[in-house]
């Protein structure tokens, strides 16, 4: 017995496997296929015949992917997502190095180590869970603008920290020990902010593709 | 039947001209072109959507999600001001080609 819904689901899965990855084109293509099927059924054809004809008419996934590849993700969006990944990876690696130093140096106390670990934990949690809660921003230029704002916020935060806050941390009495732990914790938190913002720029792009998988 | 090249070249002006009469959606656009051409212009269904998306990105048309009569989600396209201007340009160019061809055809019968 032919199951139309099952066949449509398999068709969607096939499209996704072949790279029609963005939710907007797939929803639209499916709407078209359903419309065509309905029309043919009204003309007296069977569900099976109507489905086969509609799928043949819409075209193969390879050809569609090639056409959509020229329109789906505009260059600026890809660039912003890559910049976000760049920020996140740079800040993440630097943060790990700082955290390692914070843990092994004898000049930091338990509270500072705890604060450093919290910063690392926050970054991991935000990377892991963030994309699940991001809204699906369908308009590429809005995604691009939001992503750019995230990257600017991340990098800008580090620049402001280095220019205005870091010098004051080194401003300690001459005969006392330098506040190494305090400096490391501060740097760790600024880097964690940069890593989170970078992750957000990338996550927005990732979230825009997520509805497909949920719909399958 | 039109040649592949001519079908490709006429896709954008046809879409713009149909949308100039009011918003529409992919499936209806294909049916409208088929009807008006007496089935002589037939677009590959799936290929229309990349063209529509490209035109949307170029700011010629705008899209919105709406609902069909049966309640299913449907993406509607409408003409934008830039699209109207592009359509007028297309009309001028196609009219020029048509006039030149008509003139040449008349002369060849003289």
Summary tags:
heterodimer; A: 216 residues; mainly alpha; disordered C terminus; B: 110 residues; alpha+beta; three-stranded antiparallel beta sheet; 4 helices; 63% helix; globular
Structural summary, described in words:
The complex is a heterodimer of chains A (216) and B (110). Chain A has nine helices and no strands. Chain A is an all-alpha fold. Chain A folds into two domains: 68 residues; 133 residues, no CATH class. Chain A starts with a helix and ends with a helix. By secondary structure, chain B is α+β, with helices and mostly antiparallel strands. Chain B has a three-stranded antiparallel beta sheet with strand order 1-3-2. The model of chain B has no long low-confidence stretch (mean pLDDT 90). The chains are: A mainly alpha (216), B alpha+beta (110).
Order of helices and strands of chain A: HHHHHHHHH
Uncertain segments of chain B of ≥5 residues (pLDDT<50)?
none
The low-confidence runs of chain A, each spanning 5 or more residues with pLDDT under 50, are: 211-216
Return the structural class of chain B: alpha+beta
Radius of gyration of chain B: 16 Å
Strand order of the largest sheet of chain B: 1-3-2
Largest sheet of chain A: none
Taking all residues together, what is the mean pLDDT of chain B?
90
Strand fraction of chain A equals under 5%
Please outline the helices and strands:
The complex is a heterodimer of chains A (216) and B (110).
Chain A: H1 4-17, H2 23-42, H3 47-58, H4 61-69, H5 75-104, H6 110-133, H7 140-169, H8 180-207, H9 210-215
Helix pairs in contact in A: 1-3, 2-3, 5-6, 5-7, 5-8, 6-8, 7-8
Chain B: H1 4-19, E1 24-25, H2 26-36, H3 45-57, E2 61-67, E3 73-79, H4 81-109
Antiparallel strand pairs in B: 1-3, 2-3
Helix pairs in contact in B: 1-4
What can be said about this structure in brief?
The complex is a heterodimer of chains A (216) and B (110). By secondary structure, chain A is mostly helical.
